Amino acid sequence: MLTVEQIKLLESRVLKAVERISSLQDENQRLRDGLSQYERRIEELEVLISEFRDGQKAIEEGILSTLKRLDVLEDEIAVDDGAVEQMEAAPVDSDTEAEPAGIDDTAAAPEASPAADDETDENLQTDSESELDIF
Protein backbone atom coordinates (compact mmCIF):
# COMPACT_ATOMS: atom_id res chain seq x y z
CA MET A 1 0.00 0.00 0.00
CA LEU A 2 0.84 3.62 -0.24
CA THR A 3 2.07 5.51 2.70
CA VAL A 4 1.40 9.11 3.56
CA GLU A 5 5.01 9.99 2.88
CA GLN A 6 4.85 8.51 -0.62
CA ILE A 7 1.67 10.53 -1.33
CA LYS A 8 3.28 13.73 -0.04
CA LEU A 9 6.37 13.05 -2.19
CA LEU A 10 4.19 12.41 -5.22
CA GLU A 11 2.19 15.57 -4.52
CA SER A 12 5.37 17.68 -4.30
CA ARG A 13 6.65 16.26 -7.59
CA VAL A 14 3.31 17.00 -9.27
CA LEU A 15 3.37 20.59 -7.96
CA LYS A 16 6.93 21.05 -9.22
CA ALA A 17 5.91 19.68 -12.61
CA VAL A 18 2.88 22.02 -12.74
CA GLU A 19 5.06 25.00 -11.83
CA ARG A 20 7.62 24.01 -14.44
CA ILE A 21 4.91 23.59 -17.09
CA SER A 22 3.44 26.95 -16.17
CA SER A 23 6.83 28.70 -16.41
CA LEU A 24 7.53 26.98 -19.74
CA GLN A 25 4.13 28.11 -21.05
CA ASP A 26 4.87 31.69 -19.98
CA GLU A 27 8.28 31.54 -21.66
CA ASN A 28 6.71 30.02 -24.77
CA GLN A 29 4.16 32.85 -24.95
CA ARG A 30 6.87 35.47 -24.44
CA LEU A 31 8.95 33.94 -27.24
CA ARG A 32 5.93 33.79 -29.57
CA ASP A 33 5.18 37.47 -28.86
CA GLY A 34 8.80 38.36 -29.62
CA LEU A 35 8.67 36.30 -32.79
CA SER A 36 5.54 38.07 -34.02
CA GLN A 37 7.20 41.46 -33.32
CA TYR A 38 10.25 40.39 -35.29
CA GLU A 39 8.08 39.14 -38.15
CA ARG A 40 6.26 42.51 -38.28
CA ARG A 41 9.59 44.32 -38.29
CA ILE A 42 10.85 42.06 -41.08
CA GLU A 43 7.75 42.90 -43.14
CA GLU A 44 8.33 46.63 -42.53
CA LEU A 45 11.96 46.30 -43.60
CA GLU A 46 10.97 44.36 -46.72
CA VAL A 47 8.59 47.19 -47.65
CA LEU A 48 11.39 49.70 -47.09
CA ILE A 49 13.77 47.63 -49.20
CA SER A 50 11.19 47.41 -51.97
CA GLU A 51 10.63 51.18 -51.87
CA PHE A 52 14.39 51.74 -51.87
CA ARG A 53 14.83 49.47 -54.91
CA ASP A 54 12.00 51.26 -56.72
CA GLY A 55 13.56 54.61 -55.89
CA GLN A 56 16.96 53.43 -57.06
CA LYS A 57 15.43 52.12 -60.27
CA ALA A 58 13.70 55.47 -60.88
CA ILE A 59 16.96 57.32 -60.21
CA GLU A 60 18.85 55.01 -62.56
CA GLU A 61 16.25 55.46 -65.29
CA GLY A 62 16.39 59.24 -64.83
CA ILE A 63 20.18 59.24 -65.09
CA LEU A 64 20.12 57.04 -68.19
CA SER A 65 17.47 59.23 -69.79
CA THR A 66 19.50 62.34 -69.04
CA LEU A 67 22.65 60.74 -70.44
CA LYS A 68 20.79 59.81 -73.63
CA ARG A 69 19.55 63.39 -74.00
CA LEU A 70 23.09 64.62 -73.41
CA ASP A 71 24.39 62.26 -76.11
CA VAL A 72 21.78 63.55 -78.54
CA LEU A 73 22.70 67.13 -77.69
CA GLU A 74 26.41 66.39 -78.14
CA ASP A 75 25.69 64.75 -81.50
CA GLU A 76 23.66 67.77 -82.60
CA ILE A 77 26.47 70.11 -81.55
CA ALA A 78 29.02 67.96 -83.37
CA VAL A 79 26.85 68.00 -86.51
CA ASP A 80 26.39 71.77 -86.23
CA ASP A 81 30.14 72.27 -85.73
CA GLY A 82 30.83 70.04 -88.71
CA ALA A 83 28.41 72.05 -90.85
CA VAL A 84 30.02 75.33 -89.77
CA GLU A 85 33.49 73.95 -90.49
CA GLN A 86 32.31 72.76 -93.90
CA MET A 87 30.80 76.17 -94.64
CA GLU A 88 34.02 77.89 -93.61
CA ALA A 89 36.19 75.44 -95.51
CA ALA A 90 33.99 75.27 -98.62
CA PRO A 91 35.02 78.62 -100.20
CA VAL A 92 38.71 77.83 -99.67
CA ASP A 93 38.32 74.32 -101.09
CA SER A 94 36.24 75.46 -104.06
CA ASP A 95 38.82 78.10 -105.03
CA THR A 96 41.65 75.61 -105.03
CA GLU A 97 39.66 72.93 -106.83
CA ALA A 98 38.19 75.31 -109.40
CA GLU A 99 41.58 76.48 -110.70
CA PRO A 100 42.83 74.21 -113.42
CA ALA A 101 46.48 73.34 -113.28
CA GLY A 102 48.74 75.50 -115.39
CA ILE A 103 46.65 78.69 -115.32
CA ASP A 104 48.48 81.71 -114.02
CA ASP A 105 46.82 83.69 -111.21
CA THR A 106 47.71 86.97 -112.92
CA ALA A 107 45.62 86.00 -115.93
CA ALA A 108 42.51 85.44 -113.82
CA ALA A 109 39.36 87.44 -114.43
CA PRO A 110 38.92 90.78 -112.66
CA GLU A 111 36.37 89.19 -110.33
CA ALA A 112 39.20 87.56 -108.38
CA SER A 113 40.36 90.90 -107.02
CA PRO A 114 41.27 91.36 -103.35
CA ALA A 115 38.11 93.41 -102.84
CA ALA A 116 36.01 90.34 -103.77
CA ASP A 117 37.91 88.29 -101.20
CA ASP A 118 37.14 90.92 -98.52
CA GLU A 119 33.43 90.72 -99.34
CA THR A 120 33.51 86.92 -99.06
CA ASP A 121 35.22 87.16 -95.66
CA GLU A 122 32.59 89.66 -94.47
CA ASN A 123 29.78 87.33 -95.61
CA LEU A 124 31.34 84.43 -93.71
CA GLN A 125 31.69 86.54 -90.58
CA THR A 126 28.07 87.67 -90.84
CA ASP A 127 26.87 84.07 -91.34
CA SER A 128 29.01 82.83 -88.44
CA GLU A 129 27.83 85.61 -86.16
CA SER A 130 24.16 84.94 -86.92
CA GLU A 131 24.62 81.22 -86.28
CA LEU A 132 26.52 81.74 -83.04
CA ASP A 133 24.14 84.39 -81.72
CA ILE A 134 22.08 81.83 -79.77
CA PHE A 135 22.69 83.15 -76.27
Largest sheet: none
Rg over CA atoms, rounded to whole Å, is: 47 Å
Strand content: under 5%
User: Residue share in helices?
Assistant: over 70%
**Cα end-to-end separation:** 115 Å
Characteristics of this structure?
single chain; 135 residues; mainly alpha; 84% helix
Indicate the topology:
Blueprint: H1 4-98, H2 114-132
Structure notes:
The chain has helices spanning 4-98, 114-132. The chain has two helices and no strands. It starts with a helix and ends with a helix.
What is the structure about, briefly put?
This protein is mainly alpha-helical and 135 residues long. The chain is 84% helix and 0% strand.
